[in-house]
Specification:
By secondary structure, this protein is mostly helical. It has one domain. Helices cover 78% and strands 0% of the residues. It is built from 13 helices and no strands. Helix 1 packs antiparallel against helix 10, helix 3 packs antiparallel against helix 9 and helix 7 runs antiparallel to helix 13. The longest helix has 36 residues. It is globular, with a radius of gyration of 20 Å.
Length: 313
């Protein structure tokens, strides 16, 4: 009797531990999703308030990189070590990611945050197309995903005719760079520890943005209190805490499961923009956004089968 009781108790303890880990993983994933989702409306708010987009991005990245380096140095200095190929790949991914962020921050000077967030939701089907260059099989369903995405983009920008063309071009360019970053990560960085990669990618992004800022003449207009609050929220909540929670969630429930929350992030960004920035979307634009989200969700489900990691913006 006792051996049977011990075996049952052991299995129950293992089940409880696994259930608790999964529960914690989902909570962390949801927190990261919410934290990421507030970034576009905050960026839009700060830029409309007069904060230079590149200066805002640089301040965010400097603060976030400092926090990442202090955290890694204090908790596990061994995590700061990365082989030379990993460093080179991290630098490349960081430059591509930083380019996407520069274009997206510029786009939010022309587009409402809700529109920009919906356009960024095109990333998963674009990633699938890029992965096809390295042998990932494309199917008829992928054509359906792309078709839904294209129809959604048309409904977002076509019928109203009021969407700024420059902002649209910048947002689409940012989406391509973010998609390329994801594909490059899958091709070059999946063998390395995620926290170490996150640090070096973020540091590379900071250096690239700093270089771009200097080339532009180092523009600086002292922000008001709301501008500094925007920097703090973007750096601490939407970058540092969000990425820590994101990578911890990946370790608990897997990257494929976490990636399924991507469309929810877009939906939340649109919701915050409507509630706090008083943005409004026409019915046709709302339907276009629904089609884009449907395309993104279908693509993310497919990407989950190739165990793709989605580095965050």
């Amino acid at each position: 009797m006792w051996p049977a009781y011990t075996a049952v108790r052991s299995r129950f303890s293992a089940w409880t531990h696994t259930h608790s880990r999964l529960h914690t993983g989902w909570l962390l994933a949801i927190f990261a999703t919410v934290a990421f989702s507030v970034a576009p409306p905050i960026v839009r708010f700060a830029i409309v308030g007069g904060f230079d987009s590149t200066t805002l991005l640089l301040a965010r990245m400097l603060l976030a990189t400092t926090m990442f380096s202090i955290t890694l140095a204090a908790t596990d200095r061994q995590k700061l070590r990365l082989p030379l190929p990993g460093l080179a790949a991290s630098a490349l991914v960081g430059i591509v990611n930083a380019s996407g962020m520069i274009f997206f921050f510029l786009a939010l000077g022309y587009l409402e945050a809700s529109l920009g967030s919906m356009i960024l939701a095109l990333s998963p089907p674009i990633v699938l197309s890029l992965l096809a260059l390295r042998g990932e099989r494309l199917t008829r369903r992928h054509l359906v995903r792309l078709g839904l995405a294209m129809i959604g983009v048309y409904l977002l920008v076509g019928p109203s005719g009021q969407v700024n063309v420059v902002g649209l071009a910048l947002a689409l360019t940012a989406t391509f760079f973010f998609s390329l970053q994801t594909a490059l990560t899958q091709w070059t960085l999946v063998a390395y520890p995620t926290r170490t990669v996150a640090f070096y990618v973020t540091a590379s992004m900071t250096l690239f943005v700093a270089g771009y800022w200097l080339v532009r003449g180092a523009p600086w207009t002292p922000p008001d209190l709301s501008g500094w609050v925007a920097v703090l929220v973007l750096a601490v909540v939407s970058t540092f805490l969000a990425r820590l929670a994101y990578f911890a969630a990946m370790g608990s429930i897997g990257g494929a499961q976490v990636s399924l929350l991507g469309p929810l992030e877009t939906l939340l960004s649109v919701t915050w923009s409507i509630l706090f920035l008083h943005e409004r979307l026409a019915p046709a634009q709302l339907f276009g956004g629904v089609l884009i989200l449907a395309s993104a969700l279908l693509a993310v489900q497919r990407l989950g089968r190739v165990n793709l990691r989605f580095p965050r913006r």
